[in-house]
Each structure stands twice: as C-alpha cells, then as structure tokens.
Specification:
Strand order of the largest sheet: 10-14-15-13-12-11
CATH superfamily of the largest domain: Histidine kinase-like ATPase, C-terminal domain
CATH class of the largest domain: Alpha Beta
Strand content: 15-25%
Helix content: 40-55%
Shape: flat
Oligomer: single chain
Largest sheet: 6 strands, mixed
CATH topology of the largest domain: Heat Shock Protein 90
C-alpha cells in the first residue's frame, strides 16, 4: 500500500519530471566544473533543483526537501560569489544529487525516503559555513566502486576536527505549488546511473535510483505524431468504406472494368496508407538517445577521479532517435564501454605527457543515423590495443590454443576481447579484471540484432562502433527453405547468396567448407542445425556474418526479402527460434535466432520441437 494515498498519480508525474531534471542538473554540474564563472549555467542548475524541491514539498517528502534546501543554498552562494567551485565542493554537491536520486528509488516504491546521511548533511553545512572541503579522491578508499561517493564521515572529521553533532535542518514551509508536470505516466524514473553515490545509510536503488530490472512501460509522444496517426487512421477508415461498397457491387455481379479498376485503386491506396501508418506508429516509439547519453558524463567524471585520471567525455548526436525499447537495453553495454574507455583505454596523466599527449584525455560518444541503421561510436585517444598482446593474453588464459591464435588476423585478434573470461588486467579490482564486461556487451548488442566492431591503433586510441536497426518491432529478413519448410533469418547477418555447384563443398579437417574468393568458409546445413534429415542436396548458400565468424548457411532454396513483425511464441520456444510471423499467403514462418541456433548445434534435438511447433 502506498504511503501517498490518492496522490499516487501526482507522485508518478513528479518522478518522471524530476528524474529528467536531476539528470540535466548532473550534466550541467559537469559543465560548471569546467566553467565555474558561467552565471547562466549556475542559474539553470539553481532553477532545476528549486523545481525538484518544490515538487517534493507539495508531496510532503520532507527528507528530500531538507536535502534540496541545503544544496540549493550552496548554489545560491555560488551565484552570489560567496563561495567558489572546488573539487571538494563539487564532490559534496554530486553526492547530494546522488542521494536525491536514491530517494527517487524509495518514492517509486510508494514509500517515504529516509533522511540523507547525517555526515553528508554535516558536510553541506560545513560548506555553507565557508569551511574548505578536501577533494573526495584523497579520502575515498582505493577499493571503492567507481561512481561511489566519498566517505563523508571521514571527510567531515577532516574539515572539522572537533565537529559538533549535525545541525538540525531549519523548518521549511512546504511549497504551495507543484512543478510543471507532463501528462500522467506509469511509474518510470530516470534511467539508471552506474552505481549511484554510496552513503552510510543504504536506501533502495530501484525506480528513480539505480537499475530496478524493470523497464518503463510508458512513453512520451509528440502530439504532432499522434495527430498523424489519427489522420491516417481516418483515411484508412474511408478507404475501408470504399472497399466495402466495391465488395457489395462485385457480389451483386457488377464486375465491369470500371468496378475492377476502382477496386485496384482502392487496394493500392490502402497499401500506401497502411505503409504510412506503420511508419507513423514506429515514429511514436522513437526517442532521442540523449536521454541515455546524459547519464554518462558523471559516470566518466567519477571513475576518472577515482583512478587519478583526467578525462573529458564529449557527446554528440543526442537528437538521433532510436526505438525506446532499444534505448533501455543499450544502457548496460554503453556503461561497460564508457567505463572500459576510462579504465583500460586512458593512461594516467604522467604517462600521457611522457608519450607526448595532453594530460587530459578525450572520450567521445556519438550517434548518427546511417541509412536504415543507427551508428553509435565510443572513441578514446588512449593507449590503444596491440593485436599480438591480445593474442598472447588469450593463449595465456587458455581461451584459445596457439594454433588457432596464430591463424587470426589483426581484426580477429581485437575481437578476442569479447571472449568470456578475457581481460588484459593482471589484477582484479572493483573496476575491472574479471573478464565479464565485454562479453556482456557483445551478447546484449546481438540481442538487439546489432553488430559491434573494433578499430584500434597502439598508442593512438580505440574506436568501438555499434550498428543497430532503427527498431526491433519490424525485422528485415531473408525467407529461405529447408526440408520443404520456410524459415526467416535476420537480413542484418546476410552478406550475399551464392549457388552451390556440384563438388563445391570440400572436407577440411573433417568439416564441410566452401572457398569463396580465396577464403575458406565453414558450411552449416540449415537442416542439420534444425536436427532434421535433409530431403535434397543444398542448392544455395547464404554467406552470413555474425559478430566473430563468417559461414555459409546451406539451404534448399530461398523465397526472398521481407519485412516482418515478429510474434513471440507462448509456452513453447525451441532453442534457436526467435519467434514467428505470417507470410503473404497466411502460413506461419518461424524466425530463427542464428546465434542461438549455432550455439545449440549438436546439443539438443531442436528438430523434434520444431516439428511439434509446425504441426500446431
């Protein structure tokens, strides 16, 4: 039962609006650290925090009001020139915003948050009193997780050796008006920031705080886009009425040329309108990736401070739009990549200067639409990766044998970082070294039907490119046949279709292969992958490229390209099957998950379950 009674809808409005405001405040604080004299920036930060405090007061969230009031007073003193920005003061402010975010987590669960850590309150009061605040990096334990805040008890003792008990917060009258709110939405708070600042009092980190494991189930839509959907729906209704009239005439025996021509025109018009409606509906799901990117400047800043590095994260292409579901699923991969760039890629300032570089490193996060795909790139000007070193490390860890390693070219060696258990770190730390991050990145990108590529030059830096479809709702596929059954494979993996001539398949080390332009490629029989006995010799081969391998998928025939809407299978889902769709003639076509199917090769009788499913 919620503690907010009949105000639950207002609470959800507040969480949605204020979570976005807080993310904006965090980003502007990163900018303020670079431009401490920017009065306009300070005013924006002050207004954002004031709006959050006003909403909290309207909902009687006193713990948040008290914390926001102190932090707002700090901003006011900065605006008036009574205080100056310092690394220590910025650490105090950022830990306060992190504590507010934790409070959002409690609110998203329908309960009042607990008071902020008394040591943090004391540190804020000390800063307001004009006492110098030491940088948190000096007092933060070396083993602390990236993004965690300083030990405020220790820090407060450092600035006030004879510290009295924390002052009680001054009485604050609740605000009489709530902030400007969006249309009512379901519980959905800010997208998770990696490991919010840690306080002595742990609080819930779900919803408005850290990752809750639940995705938002609502979306904000521009009314212009909704109007377009409405207009198209009305036009489709008119066309439907026209088709109904023509159907009646034809059933009554009127099949003259004019009637048939009108029928053809109406069907053509309906086809165009349905296509336009489909595109309009897809656009309602599109959201700017800036919602996701806005969390990463603070992540990079906190981790760089912990590691003793100087890093600037530059973001561009925030307006690029991507399917909302994909934006949510991209968070974990991008968190890993930004952290890895700062931790693995960037050198310490002294090492950079010795190498002839600026002490401050540059990490760039960009997004742009390229054709029908979105390209996201993370680039750093750090130490880069050495292909030979990666090869040796993979052999040393027993991930591949020496013979396999020696057959890899430079690009394939870079792909070794995606192997489970691979890490270039000799010592495990709280930041990295366990070899799980990049494996998770590749797996999650593949689930989004995307590709990830790496380019790196030793001593100059690394660029990681992620290519994603605009949406997951509609999937371009190639429809193929095996054993007289149609199947759909993701078109993103298809490079070309080649005929398989008699004698083209040769055995190499006991495995079937085909030579394509002097490259020996393994052959995978689709019927064999499905666990079925082939009914004929394969006539065509589909050259497919996954994240780390190329192969030929041998098929009986192919139908052609199509754009399909995948329907999930309820209760029964054989390994290697992503879902099902309907063909033009109304028959069911199974959509194959090729990575899943290849990993299941020879492991289980996939074909039996497929036969049962097709029989249904």
């Amino acid at each position: 039962m919620s503690e907010f009674g009949g105000m639950d809808e207002l609470l959800q409005d507040f969480l949605m609006e204020s979570s976005e405001l807080l993310s904006d405040v965090d980003n502007k604080l990163m900018e303020l650290e670079k431009r401490p004299d920017d009065l306009a920036l300070l005013n924006d930060i002050f207004r954002g925090f004031h709006t959050i405090k006003g909403g909290a007061g309207f909902l009687n969230v006193n713990a948040m009001v008290n914390l926001c009031h102190r932090t707002e007073n700090l901003f006011d003193k900065l605006r008036n020139g009574e205080l100056q920005i310092s690394a220590g003061l910025m650490d105090v402010i950022l830990d306060a915003t992190g504590s507010v975010r934790d409070m959002f987590g409690a609110l998203s669960q329908g309960r009042q948050p607990t008071d902020a850590d008394p040591a943090l309150i004391a540190a804020l009061d000390a800063a307001l009193a004009g006492q110098a605040i030491a940088p948190a990096a000096a007092s933060a334990p070396a083993s602390s997780a990236p993004g965690t805040g300083p030990d405020w008890n220790a820090l407060y003792q450092a600035v006030t050796p004879q510290a009295p008990a924390p002052a009680q917060p001054a009485a604050i009258a609740p605000a009489t008006s709530a902030p400007a709110l969006a249309v009512p939405v379901a519980p959905a708070a800010a997208a998770p920031v990696a490991e919010p600042p840690k306080t002595a009092k742990p609080v819930a980190k779900s919803g408005g705080g850290g990752s809750s494991g639940q995705q938002e189930n609502t979306i904000r839509i521009d009314t212009v886009r909704l109007d377009m959907v409405l207009n198209l729906s009305g036009e489709i209704g008119l066309t439907k009425n026209r088709l109904t009239t023509l159907r009646t005439e034809i059933l009554q025996g009127n099949t003259d040329q004019n009637t048939l021509r009108s029928l053809d025109e109406a069907i053509g018009q309906l086809d165009l309108l349905v296509g336009d409606l489909q595109n309009a509906v897809m656009k309602t799901r599109m959201q700017p990736v800036g919602r996701l990117f806005q969390k990463y400047p603070r992540l990079a800043r906190d981790l760089a401070r912990q590691l003793g590095k100087e890093v600037e994260l530059v973001i561009s292409g925030e307006e690029t739009e991507l399917d909302k579901t994909m934006i949510e699923d991209l968070n974990d991969p991008l968190v890993h990549l930004v952290r890895n760039a700062v931790d693995h890629g960037i050198e310490l300032p002294a090492d950079r200067v010795a190498a002839g570089k600026k002490p401050q490193a540059l990490v760039q996060l960009t997004a742009e639409q390229v054709g029908d795909h979105i390209l996201i790139e993370i680039t750093d000007d750090g130490r880069g990766m050495n292909a030979d070193a990666l090869r040796r490390k993979a052999i040393e860890k027993g991930l591949i044998d020496a013979e396999t390693a020696n057959s890899l070219d430079e690009k394939q060696c870079l792909q070794l970082i995606f192997l489970p258990g691979f890490s270039t770190k000799d010592q495990i730390s709280s930041v990295s070294g366990r070899g799980v991050g990049m494996d998770v990145v590749r797996t999650n990108i593949q689930k989004l039907n995307g590709r990830i590529d790496i380019n790196s030059i030793p001593g100059e830096g690394t660029r990681i490119s992620i290519s994603l479809p605009l949406t997951l709702a509609i999937l371009p596929v190639l429809v193929v046949r095996a054993c007289n059954q149609p199947f759909a494979v993701p078109l993103a993996m298809v490079r070309e279709i080649i005929p398989i001539e008699s004698g083209a398949i040769q055995e190499v080390s006991g495995r079937p292969t085909i030579v394509v332009r002097d490259e020996i490629l393994p052959v995978r029989m689709l019927a064999g992958l499905l666990g079925w006995e082939p009914t004929q010799k394969p006539a065509f081969g589909v050259l497919m490229q996954s994240a780390e391998r190329s192969f030929i998928l041998a098929i009986d025939s192919f139908v052609g390209r199509d754009d399909v809407v995948i329907k999930p299978l309820q209760n029964i889902r054989p390994k290697g099957v992503a879902g099902a769709t309907l063909s033009g003639d109304g028959s069911v076509v199974l959509v194959l998950d090729m990575e899943d199917l290849l990993s299941a090769e020879g492991a289980s009788p996939v074909g039996n379950r497929l036969s049962e499913l097709i029989a249904l």
